[in-house]
Amino acid sequence: xxxxxxxxxxxxxxxxxxxxxxxxxxxxxxxxxxxxxxxxxxxxxxxxxxxxxxxxxxxxxxxxxxxxxxxxxxxxxxxxxxxxxxxxxxxxxxxxxxxxxxxxxxxxxxxxxxxxxxxxxxxxxxxxxxxxxxxxxxxxxxxxxxxxxxxxxxxxxxxxxxxxxxxxxxxxxxxxxxxxxxxxxxxxxxxxxxxxxxxxxxxxxxxxxxxxxxxxxxxxxxxxxxxxxxxxxxxxxxxxxxxxxxxxxxxxxxxxxxxxxxxxxxxxxxxxxxxxxxxxxxxxxxxxxxxxxxxxxxxxxxxxxxxxxxxxxxxxxxxxxxxxxxxxxxxxxxxxxxxxxxxxxxxxxxxxxxxxxxxxxxxxxxxxxxxxxxxxxxxxxxxxxxxxxxxxxxxxxxxxxxxxxxxxxxxxxxxxxxxxxxxxxxxxxxxxxxxxxxxxxxxxxxxxxxxxxxxxxxxxxxxxxxxxxxxxxxxxxxxxxxxxxxxxxxxxxxxxxx
Length: 498
Known about the structure:
By secondary structure, the protein is of the alpha+beta class. The protein is built from 15 helices and ten strands. The chain is elongated, with a radius of gyration of 40 Å.
């Protein structure tokens, strides 16, 4: 603006001086050339002013009220600037050439069309690059498998997406992901990118980050935090859950608003996902332990009542002569015997002695006798061997889930028509995902009834299948259902083995 004022003032002073002195006519060729030169310089200076104001807006967020620049705004501004320069150059060349205006119009249309095509292509490329940067966060981290394996999360399950965040999205020299607050006991230990370890004085961060979720970042001293100059607070519904410490960019540039927002969202998702997986892993381990303890306690109670308590009461009955006391002990003996008979049967007779396939045959020949018009068994030898190697807990869960499926088929597969013919198929197979991959035991219960949707109208609430599906998930298995194209339903129980 100072240069515009100086040039304009100098030009006007020159003109006034020539008019006052009368040394040369004002509209001579030399005077006109000087005026055109002054006008050209002024136009160029005004154009430079517009460019510099645009640069200030997109790079430093002048007049926008934003704290950080935004990369998308800068890219659109550069494209608009290049298009304006190209159109100005084309118009300047076309005006000074002996061409018809129609040719100039066609050239301008071609230029605008080409620039629009390039703009669309660039927008598509940017979208693909954005998806590639976000792929480590939207892709599967196999947290479900880690939870069911009851194993701690491997370091690369968290480090890989965190490295992608720091490298691809932020281009930072150093970065640290620090769990704080409610997730500190569940989330992984502090992660470091571009440095050997995270800073030790993390307790000093908490007072700095409690301004609220509306604060996107907080400047910190790089000398105290191993080169990190920005602290991004991470929040959830329960409050502060962590902090992301970021150092300067590798190219020395400024971070944009989008980069900080992406970093915050990605880091919050990482902490939340890892804490959820760790919580699920602990709950699964606890539930498995409680299932085993409940099974052991039930058998121990049954053994103590049957082997210790009842014989002692029987001996006391034989030794007592008092009829009244003998009658009371006989009543206690009778109550304990009834309690033993009322306890749910353990899986030992069916599973330990007969095996999974034998226990299912006993169930169909006993409780479900006459429920099906035709029964077809398909048991592969390798599947029978794998079923025999199941732990008692896993075998018991699979047996009771299969029993629930068989009972549901017997009760509801006819759809309320007792005269309908019902055939049943049981398939026990061993599957291998790929060469050298994990093997699984699959038990399929197939019927030719009315199908799961039609049977749902006459069946109960479905809580039984939900319960057994949950128990199967606890031991790493799955319970799936699907209708058959030819009619009926197919339920499959799949459990890792080997």
